[in-house]
User: What shape does this take?
Amino acid sequence: MVTAVHAVMEPLSPSSAAEKPTPRLAAAQPAAAAPAKPGAPAATHLIDIDNLDFFYGASQALHGINLKIEHQKVTAFIGPSGCGKSTLLRCFNRMNDLIEGTRVARGTIKIHGVDIYQPDVDVIELRKRVGMVFQKSNPFPKSIYENITYGLRLQGRNKKSELDEIVERSLRGAALWDEVKDRLDQSGLGLSGGQQQRLCIARAIAVEPEVILMDEPCSALDPVATAKVEELIQELRTRYSIVIVTHNMQQAARVSDRTAFFYLGKLIEYADTRDIFTNPANPQTEAYVSGRFG
Amino acid sequence: MSQSIPTTKPDHFVIQKKKVQFLGLTVDDCIKVFFGGNAVVSIVVLALITYFLFREGAGFFGQNRQNLMVYRQAGLEYVDFIREETDNHTALTRYLSDLRLRSLNHLVQQKGLSPEAAGASLAKFDEFAGQFGEAVDPVRVILSDLTETATAIKTKFIVNEDKKEERRQLLAEGKTVEAAAVRIVPVDFNAELQPLRGTLPVFKAANHAFANTLTALLNQVPVLPAPELEQRAQRFQALTRDFLATLPLVERNLETWDHHRPVPVSQTITAFVFGRQWLTASFWQDWYGIVPLLVGSLMVSIVALALAVPLGVGAAVYVNQIASLREQKIIKPCIEFISAIPSVVLGFFGIAVLGEALRLLSQQSWLSWVPGFPFSERLNILTAGCLLALIAVPTIFTLAEDALNNVPRSFREASFALGASRLQTIIKIIVPASLSGIISAVLLGLGRVIGETMVVLLCAGNRIAIPDFTNGLAVVVEPVHTMTGIIAQEMGEVVRGSIHYRALFVVGLVLFLVSLGINFMAQKIVRRYRISIG
Amino acid sequence: MNLENSAHLFRAKPNAARRAERGIFWLFRLATYVVLLSGAAVFANIIFKGAGTVFKTEAPFINTTFLTAAPESLYVFEWQGQKREMGDHAFRAFKQQHPEAANVKAESFVYSAGGIFPCIVGTVLLVLGSMAIALSLGVCAAIYLNEYARDGAFIRFVRLAILNLAGVPSIVFGLFGFGMFVIFFGWNVSLLAGWFTLAFMVLPVVITASEESLKAVPKGFREGSLALGATKWQTIRKNVLPYALPGILTSSILGIARVAGETAPIMFTAAYVVRDKMPWEVEKFSDFFLQGVMALPYHIYVVSSKIPQNEYTERVQYGTAFVFLVIVAVIAMASILLRNRLRNRYKW
Ligand SMILES: Nc1ncnc2c1ncn2[C@@H]1O[C@H](COP(=O)(O)OP(=O)(O)OP(=O)(O)O)[C@@H](O)[C@H]1O
Ligand SMILES: [Mg+2]
Assistant: This one.
């Protein structure tokens, strides 16, 4: 793992970090490098997080997060365990509402300019548009077909022909179709771990969200399955905005366009992935991505 | 799949709530409230139980006060002073006949006399006993006269009450004319009690004569054939002297007795809580004292727990710590299965088999050293206790086994690693660590046993009396009645709204509170235990 | 050779402590087997003696009258030098046939002839109704506690109430049912009163069982469903309850055993000592709910306490106990076995 990270780090020049003491926050940056469409309006910022403080009961998990997540990009969240990546991710579709005593104490999260923590927001609608894939794959103990159509049936879409079509499209989209097309009526639990995770992704894209949140989607998978999921993410980026939490530096480097590094509930650095790994502005970031973290 | 994959985004991001509301609640809120309502049911039921027990039972204390008041006003209390005296005397004569039986046995068995000869040699004793017994007769005559008088007064009063009730009902129905026609002659207790009190001088005279006779007889107690019996005779004399000393007291009680003295409210409560008699539907006076029932329930429970705790906890330790895995797999469901035996079937088993079996066992000569053996009543504390133990064991076993299971494996391993044997580990580590769990298991077992109805109703013997503790452990072979048993037995037969009916509800209330208390204690202990381990 | 004989350091030495340990372990084992044997003794006694009533030696091997007839009085009398035993009906018919027998001296034993059919029917009705009530209340309460409730004073209070309700003696439930349903609601001794009394009694069992089963459904099922835009209720209905239901039902079977086995709560709320009509012989539909019924446990109580013990009455006493015990035991066994099966099967 460490050696792998170093392989990516090779071109890194150690001195560059020390020169810039202030973190390069997205807010302070003019929609930086990378393949940003020329002249794109502010709407390319899909999710706009402004000065967010988040609490679990009395303990603060996020401190003043400012972050703009871009449209149809893959954004990776990295950082040591417990730094608040999952917490922030789960804020985007308000999954944190399920945990008792959680609250957004300050700041806003806007998606398409709509503050999702306003009381008039329908969480259900929000979650339909912001899908999620969990660390531990959680297919329902139903058939593969039923797993995929679950979200659609919830919306009252029961037409067989339509469902069939979406199932195929989603499974193809999740690169799973060829493996399971002959056993759609078998239990989703009968699949391998990697297949299960891709099934969950297929399930998420079946309801056609705009954003897909992935919380360490590959942490329970072997390298081959991981490679497949990564491939899938590469394909999905053309149609969806993806936010992915990962501990795997290589993975972040491989799949993401933008990377945010968190530490102790604070956003330390947010920049193009290439910059983060080759030329981090912050010494902490550098220490972390180079594996020298304490 | 010819269609291209839609990549279009919605024109704008519509996530605002659509306002489908009902009474200011969304559909999901309504569903939540519905489920919440169901959860409240348990609280409501508990509250309703309390409410209805109070509702039906509350009237008891008022009615019992009335009951006690009549007891006093109608002179029943007065008569009972005298009755107590004669009852005490009767107890003394019973002591004498017991003495005679012992002497006879001694003469026949030790001295080898024929029964006739033995009887003849006791002639002097018989004469003495006869005189002793007859001495009370004059007092008895007065007592029976007074009993009649008092009963008559009480009857008058009760008839009056009935008439009042009749009138009230007529009025309630709006029949004023008929109501006015119900003639009620108030009872003039002063006048009615006159004949009762007028007998005081006669009684005093009779009492003196009685005392003199007994004193004279005391010097003529015949000599008995064995030192052990002589000792008993001495004891008899002492008892008689004590009895004689109480006679002036009775007279004083009669003199100072005042039927106007009010019955304080507190007395209705003490009469229930400390009352040593539960006597209903009696021609003389009804008593509602919970002590005999409470003692009965406790005795049965103690016997049951004395059997069930070693068995239940022992089995739990065995299954959890000693038994092989295969044994565990078989024993656990089996014991759980025992808990499925309905209590009424166990009760039937007690009547049909166990009672008789225990009685036969008690008559084996090699078991005669056991206190209380042999006994003749097949339904008694012991029979009921044995069956209740079978009910309590599964409860205790399951909970205690759980507690043992919750002891972290590391404790055990650490102990083994220090070279302790299995037994040492069990005694020094496992059991102490799970002790509070085991105690609460025992408490819950106790709750189960105290609340159990059918077994005690069928097998405890149903004699409403405080068992005789003077015989030590032999008390366990006496029949008793219990709180649960009395409710089950008498509830079906009482008149709704009567004092007896209400008394049964108060007993139910006591039972309810006792079980809540036990439950509460068990929970408290368990909670503390969680903290200590976790 | 020498090596083998010599005591090495760790050789097991038979010593006093070891023997004591073994002896004490035997005591523990003894306790366990005493319990098992006592239970077995009760079963064996009732099964052996009761089998004589319920089974026959000739075809169809089952005493159908006992299972399908109503209880009758038994008459025992001497007739032409023979001892005859007859049920009430048979005895009357016999007297009509033999007018000279009109004045024959017969000993009578109530309930000792005929069968226990009305009791079986009554018990089945009581169990079905009360379990329906208890399950609907209990499952909903458990859903609230496990899915909706957030920790707080109210929930702690509810849980405390459930725990305490579980400890209330059954006779107190009987008193409560009598005071509330029979008297206050004016339902008299009726199925309805019995249903509610029994339902409230098993409510804690059902709630606890349901909650346990709901807890066993992994959190991922709920999160996954919610993340797809399901409402809470949709999640519960489609993705939680279906997987919890088998568990809820099997554990609740234990509640059924309890309901069927209890006598005290129905003594004054639902049970009749004897009733001639069958429950479905009612004029109005509403009468069905407001009628009392005979019930097996109460019948056992009646025949074992209100009539003498002798060879004639023993038949029906043991027979009833046998049928009852078998019913309850089968239910309990089913519950225990199914639960163990289920535990092994559902591993998500
Ligand atoms: N349910 C919860 N209740 C209270 N505190 C929580 C809860 N979940 C997380 N936390 C705390 O919030 C902080 C951030 O947790 P979070 O799960 O977001 O970390 P993470 O970056 O996802 O870590 P990991 O990489 O290990 O998944 C941690 O300090 C954690 O202890
Ligand atoms: Mg995380």
Chain B has three domains: 13-57, 72-264, 297-533. Residues 211 and 244 of chain B are 6 Å apart (CA to CA). Chain B has 20 helices and two strands.
